[in-house]
Write a structure and sequence with these properties.
This protein is mainly alpha-helical. It has 19 helices and 11 strands. Helix content is 46%, strand content 9%. The strands form 5 sheets. A 3-stranded antiparallel β-sheet has the order 3-4-7. The structure holds glutamic acid.
Length: 479
């Protein structure tokens, strides 16, 4: 039986948690949980300008909101700490020195200006620039240059070899050595480039399977060369299909605001719905659409990840969100609704109408924001009447009916949906008119319009004082 997997999510914190990153994290997390393995979070924070504390925090916040827990990493630590690449520079230096000593890497003194000029010349003549190996055989720095100014390059083995591997999602792929060049492993300031830091850490952190976005598939070849040079066995690889935006362009931070995980928190999407949506981008389980966390644990496997790009379908996300608002306990949805109402200026903490509101509104609202917008109607003081609805329902005989309902409900010792509905029913019976004829003026008086939940519920949601005051305003207005 194979040992428990050790998988990782290794974001470069440069702004916010991207949907693609969230999917990579989620899939790795599920794989670890399903097989009793370990999920590691490693910060590839080598971009000194963009990898700020805020960017790191944004990743942690996104993962926390989605409920994707890591076993080792920032805030948890573990046997392979530290989990920030900028705190591991000694480790990279040690391995780079070893590779230099073994003749598998070398210091390169070429200046950026030299390399840019060479690249430009090659590209002008229609060629593809590869580092020509200028410093490969240097034994000492050129005159006037110092070792600590040099970058360290990997020395590609000579010959006609091929780097190849079997990807769990893509199958067998390979690249001839001739397509690869002597890539930079370490900058002069000791900061590792992606391929170098990634391999050293994946190996030292005992990673057994590297699952990441398909945009990294080409990096796997130089990485494999490094495993070989160090005499290390590479992990398995799974490269996940691309995610396309609604316009079928690659989902990118620049073009697609929906690429930001936390945007969805702000617009009132449930984390359960976003996880559900994200896991379906490139993976499926039969025709199942609404998938719970437990089902994900049970069903998810990298072997079922396809190669077809996942396309963002905004309607699907809203639909899933509504399903989740109906599936989750009313109290949970109510708790999550509170900040949305507070943002609209209502202090609703502890308000007994929250759960009845959720019950009444979740059939129609697709997001917490939509629910809060509809719910605002019941927390506000007063209501703006729709002119047409008022002209039709707050005139003539209707006002008499409205007055009777007002007297009936004002006299109720306790407001419950049943008791309130009972008053409307008895007014309808005693006046010998249909229920609708009695309910509609009440509805318009309370909500300003002709659609709302059941009339008893509507009155209850407005609350006794506010409901009576709105009815009084409608009666006054109607004369
Ligand atoms: N830091 C890389 C990124 O965020 C990680 C790629 C990998 O998982 O190897 O794209």
């Amino acid at each position: 039986m194979p040992s428990a997997p050790r998988v990782r999510f290794a974001p470069s914190p440069t702004g916010y948690l991207h949907i693609g990153g969230a999917r990579t994290a989620l899939m790795n997390f599920l794989q670890a949980r399903r097989h009793g393995g370990t999920f590691i979070l490693r910060m590839e924070d080598t971009d000194r300008v963009r990898s700020t504390t805020e960017s790191v925090q944004a990743i942690l916040d996104g993962l926390n909101w989605l409920g994707i827990d890591w076993d080792e990493g920032p805030g948890k630590e573990g046997p392979h700490a530290p989990y920030f690449q900028t705190q591991r520079l000694d480790t990279y230096k040690k391995h780079a020195d070893q590779l230099i000593a073994e003749g598998k890497a070398y210091r390169c003194y070429c200046t950026r200006a030299d390399l840019d000029a060479q690249r430009e010349a090659t590209e002008k003549s229609g060629g593809f620039f590869k580092y020509p190996g200028t410093c490969r055989e240097l034994k000492a720095p050129p005159p006037g240059r110092r070792e600590d100014e040099a970058v360290i390059r990997f020395k590609m083995p000579s010959g006609d070899g091929t780097a190849s591997f079997v990807d769990k999602a893509l199958g067998a792929i390979s690249k001839p050595y001739s397509d690869l060049d002597d890539w930079v492993m370490l900058r002069a300031d000791g900061i590792p480039l992606y391929n170098f830091g990634c391999v050293i850490d994946d190996h030292l952190m005992d990673i057994t399977l590297v699952a990441r976005g398909q945009e990294h598939v080409n990096s796997t070849f130089p990485q494999l060369m490094l495993y070989q040079a160090l005499g290390w066995t590479p992990p398995e690889f799974a490269h996940l299909p691309l995610i396309l935006g609604p316009d079928r362009e690659k989902l990118s931070k620049r073009k697609h605001p929906e690429a930001d995980v936390m945007l969805h928190k702000r617009t009132g999407i449930m984390p359960e719905a976003l996880n559900n949506f994200v896991i379906r981008l490139g993976w499926s389980h039969g025709n199942d659409e609404v998938i719970t966390r437990d089902q994900m644990f049970e069903w998810f496997d990298f072997a079922d990840v396809g190669t077809t790009s996942g396309v963002w379908n905004p309607e699907k996300l809203l639909w899933l969100n509504q399903q989740w608002m109906k599936l989750l306990p009313e109290t949970t949805v109510a708790e999550r609704l509170v900040p949305f109402l507070e943002a609209k200026g209502f202090s609703v903490q502890g308000d007994s109408r929250l759960v009845p509101l959720v019950r009444a509104l979740r059939e129609r609202a697709r997001t917490l924001e939509e629910m809060a917008t509809t719910a605002s109607l019941y927390f506000r003081k007063g209501v703006t009447l729709d002119e047409k609805a008022a002209a039709k329902h707050l005139s003539g005989d209707s006002l008499g009916l409205l007055r009777k309902v007002r007297d009936g409900i004002a006299a109720l010792p306790e407001w419950t949906v049943e008791a309130l509905d009972g008053v409307v029913k008895s007014v309808s019976e005693s006046s010998a008119v249909g229920m609708g004829k009695v309910a509609q003026p009440v509805r318009v008086a309370i909500t300003g319009n002709t659609t709302s939940p059941g009339i008893g519920e509507t009155l209850l949601l407005a609350g006794r004082d506010e409901a009576l005051s709105r009815i009084d305003a409608a009666l006054t207005r109607g004369g």
